[in-house]
Write a structure and sequence with these properties.
Blueprint (H helix, E strand, L loop, with lengths): L7 E3 L39 H9 L6 H9 L33 H7 L5 E6 L7 H10 L2 E4 L5 H4 L9 H12 L3 E9 L5 H4 L4 H18 L6 E6 L2 E2 L10 E2 L3 H6 L2 H13 L4 E6 L7 H16 L5 E4 L2 E2 L7 E3 L1 H9 L4 E9 L8 H16 L4 E6 L35 H10 L3
Parallel strand pairs: 2-3, 2-13, 3-4, 4-5, 5-8, 8-9, 9-12, 10-12, 12-13
Antiparallel strand pairs: 1-11, 6-7
Helix pairs in contact: 1-11, 8-10, 13-14
The structure holds (3S,4R)-3-hydroxy-2-oxopiperidin-4-yl beta-D-xylopyranoside.
(3S,4R)-3-hydroxy-2-oxopiperidin-4-yl beta-D-xylopyranoside binds next to loops.
């Protein structure tokens, strides 16, 4: 059962409101002028074979670390690892699997005892940490933290060259005191930018601003954070569902630098920390669709050009507005990225039930099967849920999610911080059930 390909069938969803090119709320992003078609990101070198190049260029060997360990234990594992394109025994051609824990009392324990281990994360907000129940559940069940908003550009660099660390430090220090790792989120993103950054123009100005931001932010957290979302959401399609006309997103970064901003951001990040894991992160690339295909080619091009990228985060916001309509296969999608020699991660999972486009039963199935699709792959390094409890979900208050004042019922804990059935289904998947 566990290794069977997972097919995510969502009935076709038509975007009814808020179908902007920005699937994801928050502050206003780039205004988009020129729709330069921008396929260049996908077209770098074509000659080298993918995986091994990236692993060795990035100097971390990260994508391949845990893989070989797991093969010994896995009954389904075969000698096929040698056929892997990476040439490192890394991706194992899809044959290696992760072995679940024999027993576990929490999600994080299930992740820690799996072989190889997998990180179980949550988006944590500064406000949440004022609540005792929130803190208790967050630390008991997770060992990986993403700051929900506190490490975005507008929070960290509100004025040019002037940094504000307080709220982010608070979260990072709380995480570390609970033996949780932290992912930095996010260095270069069109959204939640301060006004001054959004009005930069010209290649030199924009490049300098990117450099100063990455150097200061990574420098500040250097000894405390070793995984980073370097670039977030650089691609758009006509619909939020990842379908139709995939292309580079107009933004202050793309408008000034073209596709080059992606490579540049990763190169600067690598200069700052030779050992950090550097990730690209995006929404509606979770299953097989136009946007995922485009991002796959874009990332493959980066790998082939030797750009220091270590992995891809699949946000996994399922339900309105990011439904991925049609028969789409999460497992096959994760697999093709991993076969580039990269880590893959579920980075922001929630399943929005607003407007009943996802039924309670479908939600349980999706939670189980999507977590399973990641869990069985040793290259899948983390599963992060976008929040702790329903009452605090960002979806409740974002018009794009169509909640209209209702609860999105999107997470694993209810308003009283009790485990929901969604929790049980996730636990089942982590335990190989
Ligand atoms: C969201 C936060 O959860 C909200 O509180 C905020 O208002 C907007 O941003 N993709 C991302 C995350 O990468 O940073 C977004 O977080 C959700 C979508």
């Amino acid at each position: 059962m566990r290794s069977g390909p997972f097919t995510l069938l969502l009935s076709a969803f038509l975007c009814t409101i808020g179908c902007s090119d920005d699937g994801d709320g928050g502050a206003g992003g780039a205004g988009g002028q020129g729709a330069t078609s921008g396929t260049g990101g996908a077209t770098g070198g074509t000659s080298t074979s993918a995986g091994g190049t990236s692993a060795s260029t990035s100097g971390t060997g990260s994508a391949t670390g845990g893989t070989s360990t797991s093969t010994g234990d896995a009954s389904t594992s075969t000698g096929d690892a040698s056929t892997s394109t990476s040439g490192t025994g890394g991706s194992g051609g899809g044959m290696a699997v992760r072995t679940p824990a024999a027993s576990a009392n929490s999600l994080r324990e299930a992740g820690e005892k799996a072989n190889p281990p997998i990180l179980i994360g949550a988006a944590i907000s500064g406000g949440g940490l004022n609540n005792g129940d929130y803190k208790r559940v967050a630390a008991a069940e997770h060992n990986y933290v993403t700051a929900e908003n506190e490490m975005k550009w507008d929070a960290l660099e509100p004025n040019p060259g002037q940094f504000s660390w307080g709220s982010a430090d608070n979260i990072v220090n709380w995480a570390r005191s609970n033996n949780m790792k932290v992912k930095g989120h996010t260095l270069v993103w069109h959204n939640q930018l301060p006004g001054w950054a959004n009005s930069l123009s010209g290649a030199t100005q924009v490049e300098q601003a990117i450099r100063r931001h990455i150097e200061n932010v990574m420098g500040h957290f250097k000894d405390r954070i070793d995984t980073w979302d370097v670039v977030n959401e650089a691609v758009i399609t006509d619909s939020d569902t990842g379908v139709g006309n995939p292309r580079m997103r107009p933004s202050v970064f793309f408008n000034a630098l073209g596709d080059r901003f992606l490579d540049l951001a990763f190169e600067i990040a690598r200069e700052q920390d030779p050992n950090a894991k550097l990730y690209y992160n995006d929404y509606s690339i979770d299953a097989l669709n136009d946007k995922a295909d485009y991002v796959y080619e874009m990332i493959k091009g980066m790998v082939e050009r030797g750009v220091p990228i270590d992995g891809v985060g699949f946000q996994m916001h399922i339900g309105p507005p990011n439904n991925e309509a049609g028969g789409a296969d999460v497992a096959a999608n994760l697999r093709r990225f991993a076969d580039l020699g990269l880590d893959v991660l579920i980075s922001e999972m929630d399943i929005n039930r607003c407007s009943n486009q996802v039924t309670a039963e479908e939600q349980l199935t999706y939670y189980h099967d999507i977590v399973e699709a990641c869990f069985v792959m040793p290259e899948c390094k983390a599963i992060t849920f976008w929040g702790i409890n329903d009452g605090r979900s960002w979806l409740n208050g974002w018009s794009g999610a169509l909640c209209n004042g209702q609860s999105s019922q999107s997470l694993l804990f209810n308003d009283q911080y009790q485990k929901k059935e969604t929790y049980n289904r996730v636990m089942d998947a982590l335990m190989g059930r």
